[in-house]
Design a protein that fits this description.
Length: 574
């Protein structure tokens, strides 16, 4: 029993740390909680950037609201400390996967410059108050080191906001305000150092009526700084070296600030024009083309009205180009969230696979028609179907005036013409005239796009053809006999194709056999030739040996030859 209890205690002890870990979750740097925390950190950082310099340069401001400043100072310090805690619990991406291990997060954070800056911004410099006094706010200048969090918050907001250009302009104006604010504080501090009212350039003597008030001091300094940094002029001439140096520094800062402002505004305007060009077609080229080709004024007016309608009502005709940089799957999800409900209204697409509908959604092309413009005419070849997104269209007679029916948002037409249904009495021809009564927004799906998608979904193609036959039967436009004849012809064609395939397979088999026999014969011939070569070599070997013997006999026969000749000399002739 004691061993079992030990096992149970060891098994039940690990969950306690897991609960502790759950109390401080790891934040996703791209998530909402982290984003809102960054926006919270904007306030203490901006407070220190604006107020500390102002308190250091305007003594009345520091002395008059000391308790308020102490409360705000240590509240911002508390937020700075919490920000470090958040940093220790903010994950990072490794190989595209969010790391939630707090050990790895901590070790990575402490090795970065951000950690050093965060710690330095919380150094307890306020301890020097005991020596220098409570009215020395310059001791807190190290709080400026947390400015990178401000820039990070601005970058995240710019990517999330629906009005990035307006936010860029607002951010630029905020930077300009901070620069002018700092410059006005330095101007007042320099005036106090040189002596108030000593000349026309410095701040007037506070003993004069109205100039002793804190609000007047700040506004006058801010106004004077604005005149310098905007290079408007109308400022008193400097009289001392310090004043000249201050003016020169401000002029250089003004030149750099002017260049920065112009560059930022140009970037904003360019981005706005680029966005407009991406969302809406460029009408300047079309207008120039019509003018060069001397298009009649009525048609030119219609084209201009069409472009104006797109601009005023924010209509987009190039959604594919706008979403082209997104990954294919993400682009499909965006298109599905926008257009899937519209596609499901079409009867032949109901009960189709979700993946099929997702691919079809990517093929939908938005189109806008002007008042009185024909979408299709009777007898035209049907190469696409249309889904009405917004507006009204009329089914009219050949005279273009008599209306048979009015089609509204959510309806569709032309779906039968893009499906090759056997026995369709109308073929692929349009059976009615469809005219737009006002400005109408339609979705167009071409036959080629549908065929491309259905090639990967043969079962869905069968289902859609069956629904198309049902619709044609209700409309009495399906020739059953013709359909049977086409089916029989198709079956006969398929049978012939199968026969040809079988004959082709037989020919391939025979050809393969012939090749095999040819290779076997070639091997046999090569073998026989090799045997003949060896035999001829064996025949030539005795002759070569005899020649070698003949070449060796004269050396032995020289002596024998002498003896032979002497012997022969003693013999009588024949």
């Amino acid at each position: 029993m004691s061993q079992d209890s030990k096992v149970k205690t060891t098994e039940s002890s690990p969950p306690a740390p897991s609960k502790a870990r759950k109390s401080l979750p790891v934040l996703d740097p791209s998530g909402d909680y982290y984003y809102w925390w960054l926006n919270t950190m904007v306030f203490p950082v901006m407070y220190n950037l604006i107020i500390i310099v102002c308190r250091a340069c305007f003594p009345d401001l520091q002395h008059g609201y000391l308790v308020v400043w102490l409360v705000l100072d240590y509240t911002s310090d508390l937020l700075y400390l919490l920000d470090i805690v958040v940093r220790f619990h903010t994950g990072f991406l490794d190989q595209g996967i969010l790391v939630v291990d707090k050990g790895r997060i901590s070790s990575r954070y402490v090795r970065t410059w951000s950690f050093l800056l965060d710690v330095a911004s919380l150094m307890p410099t306020d301890v020097a108050y005991m020596q220098l006094g409570m009215h020395t706010p310059t001791l807190r200048l190290n709080r400026f080191l947390r400015v990178p969090r401000l820039f990070e918050a601005f970058d995240r907001t710019e990517t999330r906001t629906a009005y990035p250009n307006a936010f860029r302009i607002t951010k630029l104006m905020l930077y300009i305000f901070v620069v002018i604010h700092w410059n006005s504080c330095l101007y007042f501090a320099l005036s106090r150092y040189l002596g108030f009212g000593r000349d026309a350039w410095v701040y007037p003597d506070p003993a004069q009526p109205g100039f002793e008030r804190l609000r007047r001091q700040y506004l006058y300094s801010f106004y004077f700084s604005t005149l310098i940094l905007t290079t408007v002029g109308d400022t008193p001439l400097p009289a001392r070296e310090e004043e000249y140096l201050f003016m020169v520094g401000d002029f250089l800062l003004a030149v750099m600030g002017f260049a920065t402002i112009m560059g930022s505004m140009s970037s904003v305007i360019y981005n706005m024009n680029t966005a407009d060009a991406a969302f809406y077609p460029d009408h300047a080229l079309v207008k120039k083309y019509m003018k060069q080709q001397q298009v009649n004024r009525r048609l030119e007016r219609r084209v201009i009205d069409w472009y104006q309608h797109l601009q005023i009502n924010k209509k987009m005709t190039n959604e594919v180009a706008i979403l082209q940089h997104l990954p294919e799957r993400l682009r499909a999800e965006v298109a599905v969230s926008v257009h899937l409900s519209t596609l499901r209204r079409v009867q032949i697409f109901q009960n189709c696979e979700a993946s099929l509908l997702e691919e079809l959604v990517l093929k939908l092309q938005p189109q806008t028609y002007s008042p009185g413009e024909y979408v299709c005419r009777k007898g035209d070849i049907g190469r696409e179907m249309y889904i009405i997104r917004e507006g009204q269209l009329a089914v009219v007679a050949d005279d273009g005036v008599t209306q048979y029916a009015v089609l509204g948002a959510g309806l569709y037409f032309g779906e039968i013409s893009i499906i090759n249904i056997k026995g369709n009495m109308s073929g692929n021809r349009r059976t009615a005239n469809i005219k737009s009564l006002g400005y109408s927004d339609l979705f167009c799906l071409s036959k080629e796009d549908l065929r491309e998608v259905l090639s990967e979904y043969p079962q869905a193609q069968v289902v859609m053809e069956e629904k198309g036959r049902e619709i044609l039967l209700k409309m009495n436009k399906l020739d059953v006999n013709a359909e049977a004849a086409e089916i029989a012809l198709q079956e006969a064609t398929e049978s012939r194709l199968r026969g040809l395939d079988q004959q082709l397979d037989d020919l391939q088999t025979k050809f393969a056999r012939l090749l095999a026999e040819l290779e076997s014969s070639a091997l046999k011939i090569a073998y026989r030739i090799e045997r003949l070569e060896w035999q001829t070599r064996e025949w030539s070997m005795p002759e070569e040996l005899a020649e070698a013997d003949d070449e060796g006999e004269p050396e032995e026969g020289t002596s024998q030859g002498g003896e032979g000749r002497s012997a022969q000399e003693g013999l009588p002739g024949p």
